[in-house]
């Protein structure tokens, strides 16, 4: 699909479920070859630099991999919003793990695991915005 296709869906999921998310784990690497990586929009590159800096600051392991975010902090939720669709892998979850979002392989996939009730609520959330659920998402 690519980041251009996944980013709107990712943003809708974060708009709908972001307030329920507590933590995330993100890799600060895109899946692109280097020339395409340099073509990332500046807000995405800025988020990648900040994530990499956090990885360096923790002082162990690969500074681009497995960076933890506290999604109760608005700034961390914004980092997830900006870089998530570009990451080779990121996942976010609520405290009870009843809401889980994933994006991976730089726009290849975006997954939401939610309760049946949340699916209904998400459909209503989309309808209020004039978005048809079936045009954007598949239920597996």
Provide a brief overview of the structure.
The chain is α+β, with helices and mostly antiparallel strands. The protein contains six helices and five strands; from the N terminus they run αβααβαβββαα.
Give a structural overview.
The protein is α+β, with helices and mostly antiparallel strands and 140 residues long. It has one domain. Helices cover 45% and strands 19% of the residues. It contains 6 helices and 5 strands, in the order H-E-H-H-E-H-E-E-E-H-H. It has helices at residues 3-17, 34-38, 42-57, 74-83, 116-128, 133-136; strands spanning 21-26, 67-70, 89-94, 100-104, 109-113. The chain has a 5-stranded antiparallel β-sheet with strand order 2-1-3-4-5. A hairpin with a 5-residue loop joins strand 3 and strand 4. Helix 3 (42-57) crosses helix 4 (74-83). The protein is globular. It starts with a helix and ends with a helix. 29% of the residues are buried.
Quantity of strands, as a count:
5
The first-to-last residue Cα distance is 18 Å
Report the principal-axis shape.
globular
Largest sheet: 5 strands, antiparallel
Helical residue percent band: 40-55%
What average pLDDT do the residues reach?
88
Rg, Å, rounded: 15 Å
What kind of oligomer do you see? single chain
User: What pattern of helices and strands is seen along the backbone?
Assistant: HEHHEHEEEHH
Individual helix count: 6
Low-confidence stretches: none
Strand content: 15-25%
- How many domains in all? 1
Structural class: alpha+beta
Side-by-side strand order of the widest sheet: 2-1-3-4-5
């Amino acid at each position: 699909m690519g980041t251009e296709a996944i980013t709107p869906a990712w943003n809708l999921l974060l708009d709908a479920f972001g307030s329920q998310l507590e933590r995330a784990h993100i890799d600060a690497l895109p899946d692109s070859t280097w020339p395409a990586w340099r073509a990332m929009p500046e807000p995405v590159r800025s988020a990648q630099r900040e994530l990499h800096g956090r990885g360096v600051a923790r002082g162990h392991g690969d500074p681009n991999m497995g960076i933890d975010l506290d999604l109760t902090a608005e700034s961390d939720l914004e980092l997830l919003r900006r870089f998530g669709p570009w990451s080779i892998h990121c996942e976010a979850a609520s405290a009870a793990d009843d809401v889980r979002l994933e994006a991976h392989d730089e726009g290849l996939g975006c997954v939401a695991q939610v309760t049946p009730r949340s699916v209904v609520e998400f459909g209503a959330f989309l309808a209020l915005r004039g978005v048809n659920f079936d045009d954007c998402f598949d239920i597996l």
